[in-house]
Design goal:
The structure is a homodimer. In chain A, strands 1-2 form a two-stranded antiparallel ribbon. Chain A folds into two domains: 3-55 and 69-89, Glutaredoxin; 104-241, Glutathione S-transferase Yfyf (Class Pi), Chain A, domain 2 (Up-down Bundle), CATH 1.20.1050. The first copy, chain A, is mostly helical. Chain A has helices at 3-14, 34-39, 79-89, 104-138, 144-165, 181-191, 205-209, 213-225, 229-233, 235-243, 255-258, and strands at 47-50, 74-77. In chain A, 51% of the residues lie in helices and 3% in strands. Chains A, B: Residues 1-94 form the GST N-terminal domain.
């Protein structure tokens, strides 16, 4: 159900990486369990464990230090950093366009796109989803005015995605002709907006994205470029969307009609 | 006045990079001028122009494409990506600990810290500053409830910075014994909270950071590690803080007392 986790899973599958996926169920409190917090004290997903990471690193954290002498098990949070690490860790397998190694200008552009995603697409979409859907499910306070501010942030981000990053349609993906890590991360984030239909009639991914046809076209290109792994990773989300009753009741289209990729 | 711009300036100065600084005055609308938008259609600072970037990159954007045949002038937004690019561009000058190149595990940890900063420290602090200070100055709508939500985000981030990234005080900087790009970026972001005193009595960087003594100690370590460039880059902010009348009027300490680094 986690959008950045799906992204890392798809990235790993598309590039054929030997990554084993272990689901952590947020809604069952598993990100807050003592066992998980011992691995990732930030209490967030995804987390990459590399049990055979280079033991020579002079860095540490976050989280508890390894045994004296330095552990060779890396525990890395943050989806974007995980993808960059996997690209460096499996240089023979991760295609350059996903996260460039040799072309430093391209790498910088991918990283700019990733950071821009964090402060714009993610800042808007995740905050909107939290205050419209997640908070209510977790029984924590939510605020409609914060949700409205997040929607505004998201709409500005979608306009910039369409007009600037995609060059109004002149650029197929955010940094060139082939998809990169930022395309995938942004795309997975936007799919999560499907859950909004359970919170408010007339608010849905389709409704929010409709004014941005180049974003819709790009979204389909990302799905196509990562098939069949994209659909596989979104199966749980789509099932949840299909199960959730649409808010308001006046909506004609059922879950099934809305949950196709 | 821009916190990520200050960060890039300090990063460049500390590492002795041949970076020429050109101020863009946000409050005079310069980030929205046609001339600036032609360089960076995102309308944000900082922007790095590298007029001698490798011309062989297969990537493009954001922004207008160069002349046919490919331009060798790179225009790169996003402070974190700029620092990563500068580290790759000037490998003989940027110290490894600031943005590692050889140690891929350390590089991944620095990038995790940078992305975490975006979604937590930045998401809280910049949103708070915007709704408390910036929006009022620009004459655009602000919302106290959005500011309250941002303050909560920031407080959770400061707790995680202290307890997880700094290991409750066991770790000197976010990824080890020496400062990295994320330490500097987060530190510059937090300084901006000084402007809050003009918006609301009792709300200030000192007040917000007081419950997190390990964050305060780390902040001082970052300043010390980057002296005298840190203070030089913050001169404009501190002058603005000193000039802005404290809100409420009941506050005893004047601007001068509060604007020491």
């Amino acid at each position: 159900m986690s959008q950045p986790s799906r992204c890392v899973v798809i990235f790993s599958r598309v590039n054929g990486l030997p990554v084993e996926v272990r689901p952590i169920l947020i809604h069952k409190g598993e990100t807050r369990s003592p066992a998980y917090l011992a691995l990732n004290p930030l209490g967030k997903v995804p987390l990459l464990e590399d049990t055979a990471a280079a033991a020579s690193s002079s860095s540490s954290g976050p989280g508890p230090a390894g045994p004296a002498g330095g552990s060779s098990c890396l525990r890395l949070p943050e989806s974007a950093a995980i993808m960059g690490y996997l690209a460096d860790r499996f240089p023979g397998q991760v295609a350059e366009h996903w996260y460039p190694r040799a072309d430093k200008v391209h790498r910088a552009r991918v990283e700019a796109a990733l950071h821009w995603y964090q402060g714009n697409i993610r800042a808007g979409a995740a905050k909107l989803s939290f205050h419209k859907v997640v908070a209510k499910r977790l029984g924590v306070p939510s605020d409609e005015r914060v949700a409205a501010d997040a929607l505004k942030t998201l709409q500005l981000a979608l306009a910039a995605l369409q007009d600037v990053w995609l060059g109004g349609g002149a650029r197929r993906f955010m940094t060139g002709d082939r998809p990169c890590a930022a395309d995938l991360l942004a795309c997975c984030e936007l799919e999560q907006l499907r859950m909004l239909r359970a919170a408010e009639h007339g608010l849905d991914m389709e409704v929010i994205l409709a004014p941005y046809p180049q974003v819709l076209a790009w979204q389909q290109r990302v799905r196509d470029a990562t098939a069949p792994h994209y659909a596989a990773a979104h199966r749980v989300l789509l099932a949840a969307v299909a199960k959730a009753p649409p808010a308001g009741g006046a909506g004609g289209g059922g879950g099934a009609a809305q949950s196709k990729l």
